[in-house]
UniProtKB/TrEMBL annotation:
InterPro entries: MBL, RibonucZ/Hydroxyglut_hydro, Xnuc_lig_assoc. This is Putative mRNA 3-end processing factor. GO terms for molecular function: RNA endonuclease activity. It comes from the Bacteria.
Amino acid sequence: MPLIEFTDKGLYCRAGDFYIDPWRPVDKAVITHAHSDHARWGNKYYLCHHDTRPILQQRLGPNTYQDIAWNEPVYMNGVRITLFPAGHIIGSSQVRIESNGEIWVVSGDYKIENDGISGQFEPVKCHSFITESTFGLPIYNWKPQTEIYTDVQNWIRKNQEVSKTSVLIAYSLGKAQRLLHPIAEVTDKIFVHGAVYNIHMALVNAGWKLPAVQRVTPETSKEELKGAVVIAPSSAEGSPWLRRFAPYEIGICSGWMQVRGNARRKNADAGFALSDHADWNGLLQACRETEAECIYATHGFQAVFTRYLNEHGINAKEVKTEYGDDELEPAELKLEED
């Protein structure tokens, strides 16, 4: 029996009697990170990283939570569980489980480049490695983060010159926090959608030092918004909520902007290929550095990715899960209409 089984409720460790990022309610859930496709409501117990707990509390409300640090082992029924940085978003972790000399690592979502707030991805040697493959095609090859930030800053400055509001479409948990520091170098007029504000305040109240933001409300004046920056979730695209910012330009921050024409198809003025996921080379690097005997690829271009690994001497299998694309905002985040 493998240490992790792929079941209709999620990734199950029978020896420890717990699930990792289950998509159905279970008694014991080990959570890699707080995005809604990996951390769902209804579990009786949640184990997560210290920095993930306040976000789960904000999103899921009162529950039984246990939080631990990276590289701080805990045991369930004799199975050793240790969290390591995944570099995806604040608090995101890889889950290493060990029993009777067998080691598996569940990566959750991850990226290789250190973004300055999410922790540096740390390859963990194991026998079996479960990896995402959201951007598992060779076309996805990210520019260095500093270059993308410079592009965003120059775009904001261009809009400021003509008193336009710069509306950045970015996931409320992850990219919204990453963008704050480079934006703050250009302006202190940073406004955010309510969904972004809720996450922001949960982190600030937990002790995170983030640049100050203002929540967009019906009382926010046109004068305040001239030349300002607004961060909003993808659900704001094409919505009446945007009308208050006119004149404005829209810039979408997403790995999908790597494909030429995607910004135009979304009627955006600019596209920035900023992703919280590993690109093609990052995925390959992570898989190689684990030295795993078997790679299990899930959510994304897993068929292409596993075929490439097998053709290059790395044993890989495709696995179906219910994890989604966190480059899109979950339905639970409703727009605030006038």
